[in-house]
Automatic annotation (TrEMBL):
Similarity comment: Belongs to the transglycosylase Slt family.
Region (Disordered) location: 48-68
Signal peptide positions (record): 1-18
Lineage: Bacteria, Pseudomonadati, Pseudomonadota, Betaproteobacteria, Rhodocyclales
Domain Transglycosylase SLT: 78-167
PROSITE patterns, per the entry: TRANSGLYCOSYLASE
The protein's name in its UniProt record: Lytic transglycosylase domain-containing protein
């Protein structure tokens, strides 16, 4: 299995993977897990360099949101009573402002909507920035109302409402979600401080 892990890392490197660094591990069931940041101690760096103080995010260079996108997020978030800085933080962490972002799990667009969530919120084209933002921000508003907590709303955005409820209205003990919530909150705090 280690050979296939190394082979995959080399393949990704040869394809000029967008992430600057790739981490991974193989679990006890033989399933390979990969990330562009070190989720927990099991993840080992497979390629790229360690994040440095010069690079604020393990996901690569952090850039300012495009002005048009910022304006759209501010407008749509305002319509739904969501802090635009929170919505923008979700967009940054989910897609790094890429409207064409696609996850291996099937999430699409700026706010990485899963197909069922897109359908639930009437998003006909999840790769259309406005359509995706409208659905994603409405979903975020509903989660904020349902859980009454930014942290739990973010956990539900990442892991699903059911996961938060099954874990006693707490952040589920999933490595991805445990890393996701503080990353979004950190970006939210930074974006709130910017004019």
């Amino acid at each position: 299995m280690r050979l296939s892990l190394v082979s995959l890392a080399l393949l990704l490197a040869s394809l000029h993977c967008a992430a600057n660094t790739l981490y991974g591990f193989v679990d006890e069931s033989g399933v390979a897990h990969f990330s562009d940041f070190k989720v927990d101690g099991r993840y080992k760096r497979l390629m790229g360099s360690e994040p440095s103080a010069q690079r604020p995010s393990a996901r690569g260079t952090r850039q300012a949101p495009p002005p048009r996108l910022r304006a759209r997020v501010e407008s749509i978030a305002g319509e739904h009573g969501v802090d635009p800085a929170l919505a923008m933080a979700v967009v940054e962490v989910e897609s790094a402002y890429r409207p064409d972002a696609r996850s291996p799990k099937g999430a699409l667009g700026l706010m990485q909507l899963m197909p069922a969530t897109a359908q639930r919120y009437g998003v006909s084209d999840p790769l259309d920035p406005d359509d995706n933002l409208r659905g994603g921000i409405r979903y975020l508003r509903d989660l904020l109302d349902q859980f009454g907590s930014t942290e739990l709303a973010l956990a539900a955005y990442n892991a699903g409402e059911g996961a938060v409820m099954r874990h006693g209205y707490a952040i589920p003990p999933y490595a991805e979600t445990q890393a996701y919530v503080p990353r979004v909150l950190q970006r939210y705090g930074s974006l709130q401080r910017k004019p």
